[in-house]
Amino acid sequence: MSDQSSATATFPAGGGEMGQLIREKDWSRTLVGTPDQWQQSLKTTLNIILYSKFPKFLWWGPELICFYNDAYRPSLGEDGKHPSILGMNGKEAWPEIWPIIKPLIDQVLEGESLYFENLLVPIYRNGHIEDVYWTFSYSPTKDDFGNIAGVLVTCAETTREVLLKRNLETSERKLRLIIQQAPASIATFKGPNYVTDIANSNALALWGRKAEEVINRPILEAIPELKEQGIKALLDDVYTTGNRFSATELPVQFLRDGKLETIYVNFSYEALYDANAEIDGIIAIGHDVTNQVVAHKKIEANEEKLTMVIEASELGTYDYNIQTNKLDGSKRLHEIFGLADNEDIDHEHFVSSIHPKDLGIRKAAFERSFNDGILEYISRLILPENQVRWIEVKGKVHFDEENNPHKVLGTVRDITSERINRQKLEESEQKFRLLADSLPQHIWTADTEGNLNYFNQSVYDFSGFSPEELDREGWLAIVHPDDKEGNIKAWKNSIATGKDFLFEHRFRKYDGTYRWQLSRARPQSNQDGEIQMWVGSSTDIHDQKEFTNELERLVVERTNELAQNVKDLASMNKELQSFAYISSHDLQEPLRKIQTFSTLLLENEYENLTEDGKEHFSRMQNAARRMQALINDLLSYSRTSMSERKYEPTDLNKLIVEVKMDLKEELAQHHAVVESDELCTLNIIPFQFRQLLQNLISNSLKFAVKGREPHIEITSEKGLGSEFDLERLSPTTKYCHLRISDNGIGFDPQYSDRIFELFQRLHGKDKFQGTGIGLAIVKKIVDNHNGFIAAHGNPNEGATFDIYLPEKQ
Questions:
Q1: What pLDDT shows up at residue 364?
Q2: pLDDT at residue number 3
Q3: What does the radius of gyration of the chain's CA atoms come to, in whole angstroms?
Q4: What is the mean pLDDT of the chain?
Q5: CA–CA separation, 235 vs 232, rounded Å?
Q6: 424 and 404 in a common domain
Q7: β-pairing, 681-684 with 648-651?
Q8: 27 lies in a domain?
Q9: Where is the Histidine kinase domain (predicted)?
Q10: DSSP type of residue 704
C-alpha cells in the first residue's frame, strides 16, 4: 500500500485542489486502477484539465470515470457531488441528468463533437435539484492507441445570465404591455436615427400609420411629413442634451388618406438611458387634443359670429332688472331710441318713448312672459320731433329661487323699413288681385312646395266652386280624370327642377262639360336665385284643339290613301314587269320564223334575185338580228328587276375568271388584256354580278379603238363612305369600291349620267352594234345591291366605271 501511495503521490504534480485530491485518492478501489497503470493519454489530458483556468470535466473509459478541475468545482455547489464523484462512473455520479446527457456522450464516443448554448440541465447541488443553464462543448479524447476513450467537457454555467436576461425580457414585456395599454400615445425611438422601437395603438392612430410601416424604421423616414415641421430639431436637442421638451396644443400635420391633416397634440420628449447612463433613445408621450382645440375655436368663432350677427342685424340688446327697475342697453339700443352714447337710457325713458296706443300691448306681453318666460311684442316709438318708428322687442325672463321674475335679457330691433315694405307689398298684392280678377284667363299662384294658394275670380266662375269649396276639394277636382296623373307628374317635375311648367289638360266647367286648357307657370326668384313662389295661368285652347284634332284626322285619311296608292302602284309595276317579260319572250317565235324563211330564200333563190332584191334581203336579216338583240336585252333587263335577290358571300376574283372564260373567244379575237388585282369578297347576287362584269367587259371590247389592243384594268379597295368623298354614300357604312377602266373610244363627260338610261346610245348603230340596254342593266344590278355607279371618260382616252357596294347587305 505504501508503494502504491508513493506512486500516486507523484501524479499529478500540482493541479490545485483537484490535483491534491487525485494524489490522495485510493485509486485501487476504482475501476480505472492506480495512476501508475494509467495510459499516457489520460495523464496528458488530466494535466491539461487541471492547469486550465476554464471549467473542464472528463469522462474516461468504458465506465465514463469522472474527473474535473478547480475551475469546474464551484458549479457543483455545496452539500452536493463534490468530491464524491471524483473517480466515480458517470451513471452513478449523475443519475438525475443521465437520461439527458448519455445520448449526447454516445454521439461523441462515435467521433462527433457537440456544442450547446444556455441549455437547461438540472443537477443536484446545495442539498437539492437546481435548474442550471450551461454553455458547453463535448469533444472526444483518444487513448494511446488512437481509439476514442473518453469525452472532454468544456463548460461555463450561464444560469445567472439566463435568469437575468429572462427577468429583463419579462420586465420589457411588462413595460411594452403597460405602454400598449396606456391611454396616452406612447412611442420609443432608439439611436441617433430615432428608429421606432415601440409604438402603442394610440400612437399609430395619431400618426395614421400601421405598425409594419413604422416599427424598426427611423421615424422621420416612416413619417416624412414631419421633416418640414421642425420635429427633427426637437429630437436632436433632447438626444444630445437630455433636456425634456413639452408642448401643448401644438399643431402637427400627418398624411392621412393622401391628404395632410392638422392634429393638435399635447406631448413631451424625454431621453432614455442605457446601463452606462448614456442616452440611447427617446420616449414620446402625447395626447390628441384636436377635439378640444376645435371646440375652443368653434366657441370663439361662434362668439365672433354672434357679435357679427348682432351687429349685422343691427339689434339693440338690453338687460332689465325687474326688481331694481334698472335698464342697461347697448350702443345700438341708444341709436334706436335716438340717444347719444353718453346719454343714459333708463326704464322710464324706455317706457315713455312707446306710443301711448301701444302701452297696452307691452303690458299684456309682460304679463304673459311672467307665465311662460318669453317676452315678445311689437310697438311704435315716438322719437324727438314726433318721428314714429316701429320696434320688435324680444326677451327671456329669468326667475329667482322663489320663482319670482328677476330680470329680462333681450333684444330690440328697428322694423320700420319692414313695416313700410309690408304695407307696400299688401298694396301691390291688392292691385295684383284686382288685375287678375279682371282677366278672362285662369290665374293662380303656388308656394315653393307647389301648393296652390290663390285663384282669380275666373277660376271660380268657370268651375262653379266657391273659394271654400275649391279649398276643400282641391284644384285637381276640376281636372279631367284622364289628365290627372300626367298633370301631377309634370307639376312635380317643375317643382323639383325649377323649370317652367307647361301642360295641356281638360278642366270641368260648372255645367259638367270639359274644355281644353294650356297651363303655364314660371318660378319667381329673389336676387340670389332662390324661388319664392310660382305664378301660373290657364288659357282656353278648346277651339284650337278641336281644329288640330280635325286636321290630324284628315292627315291620317290622306296617309291611308297614299299607302293604298303605293300598294296599287307596286301591283301595277309587277304586272308591267310580267307583261314585258311575256311580251319579249313571245315575240321571239314569229321573229325566228322570219329569220328561218329569209335564210331559206337566200340559200335557194339567191341567184334569181336582183341586186336590189339581195340588198333588201340583207337589210331585212340585219333588222331581224337587231330585233332579236333588242328582245334578248329587254328580257335580261326584265329578269334583273324581277329576280329574287339571294345574297351570297362571293369572291370577285373567281367571278372574273369565270367571265374571262365565257368571253374567251371575244378576248382572243380583239387581242384584249384583262388585268385585275386582289379583289374584294362581297355579299352579292352572284349571277347578276356576273352579268354586270360581262356587260362592262363586252362594252369595252365593243368600243375599242381600231388598231389599239384593248386593255381592261379592274381594281378594288375598301373603306368608309366618308373616305370616298361622295355625298350619296353613308359616311359610317363600309363600302367596296370596284373600278373598271379601259383604253377605248371613251365618251364626252357631259354624257356621264345619260349612258345609263334605257335605249340610250351615244353612237350610231351603223358604227357600233347594240340596243342601248347593256349599261342600263349594269345600273339596275348596282341598284339591286344598294350601291352607286358613276362613269367617267374622255373622247379617245377610254372610260372608267366606279362602282360602290356596301360590304354587308
A1: 92
A2: 43
A3: 61
A4: 83
A5: 5
A6: no
A7: antiparallel
A8: yes
A9: 582-809
A10: P
Is 549 part of any domain?
Answer: no
Inform me whether the pLDDT recorded for 522 exceeds 90: yes
pLDDT at position 490 is 92
DSSP 795: T
Residue 303 within a domain = no
Contact 631, 592 (CB under 8 A): no
Tell me, yes or no, whether 425 and 532 share the same domain: yes
Beta strands 279-288; 387-399: pairing state: unpaired
The alpha-helical segments, DSSP class H, found in 474-587 are 481-497, 542-586
Phi-psi map region of 736: left, alpha, beta (phi>0 left; psi -120 to 50 alpha):
beta
Least confident of 344-358, 482-496, 641-655, 710-724: 641-655
Three cell numbers at 130? 437546481
pLDDT of residue 68: 94
Cell 420589457 appears where?
172
Q: Tell which phi-psi region holds residue 507, choosing left (phi > 0), alpha (psi between -120 and 50) or beta.
A: beta
Alpha-carbon distance of 248 to 419, in angstroms, equals: 53
Q: Tell me, what DSSP letter sits at residue 479?
A: B
- Nearest of 288, 282, 283, 212 to residue 254 by alpha carbon: 288
In 767-777, which positions are buried (b, 16+ CB within 10 angstroms) versus exposed (e)? eeebbbbbbbb
Q: What CATH code is carried by the domain that includes residue 509?
A: 3.30.450.20
Residue listed under C-alpha cell 311704435: 380
Q: What is the pLDDT of residue 502?
A: 93
Note whether 191 and 281 are same-domain residues.
yes
36-90 tens-digit pLDDT: 999 999 999 999 999 999 999 999 999 999 999 999 999 888 888 889 899 999 9
Q: How confident is residue 642, by pLDDT bands cut at 50, 70 and 90?
A: very low
Residue written as grid cell 436576461: 165
Q: Which three cell numbers stand for residue 726?
A: 361622295
pLDDT grade for 217, boundaries at 50, 70 and 90: very high
737 within 8 A of 802, measured Cβ to Cβ: yes
Spatial distance between the Cα atoms of 625 and 619, rounded to a whole number of angstroms: 10
Residue whose C-alpha is closest to residue 746's, from 781, 704, 794: 794
Q: How long a stretch of residues is the chain?
A: 809
Amino acid letter, residue 510:
Y
Grid cell for residue 719: 373603306
Kindly list the distances between the CA atom of residue 494 and the CA atoms of 129, 475, 780, in Å, as whole numbers in the listed order.
Answer: 96, 17, 56
DSSP string, 601-619: HHHHHGGGS-HHHHHHHHH
444 pLDDT band (50/70/90 cuts)? confident
Same domain, 271 and 375: no
Q: Which of 263, 295, 327 is the last residue of a domain?
A: 295
Angle, alpha carbons 347-348-351 (nearest 5°):
85
Beta strands in 274-330 (DSSP E): 279-288, 315-321, 326-329
> Could you tell me the residue range of the domain that residue 250 belongs to?
182-295
Compute the distance between CA of residue 161 and CA of residue 133 in angstroms, rounded to an integer: 9
Q: Are residues 487 and 470 part of one domain?
A: yes
- Angle, CA 108 vertex, CA 105 and CA 112 arms, to 5°: 150
The CATH number that applies at residue 778 is 3.30.565.10
Give per-residue burial for 207-224: e unless 16+ CB within 10 Å, then b.
bebeeeebbebbbbebbe
Model pLDDT, residue 622: 64
| Same domain (yes/no): 365, 500 | no
My answer on whether 696 and 778 are in the same domain is yes
Q: Which three cell numbers stand for residue 737?
A: 369600291
CA distance 246 to 234: 10
Based on the fold, state whether residues 432 and 402 are members of the same structural domain: no
- Structural domains counted in the chain: 5
Q: Model confidence over 761-793: pLDDT tens digits?
A: 444 444 445 445 778 888 888 888 888 988 898
Residue with cell 437546481: 130
* 784 located within any domain: yes
**Residue 659: predicted pLDDT:** 86
Cα-to-chain-centroid distance, residue 429: 53
- Among residues 540, 575, 610, the one where a domain terminates is 540
In the predicted model, is pLDDT for residue 580 greater than 80?
Answer: no
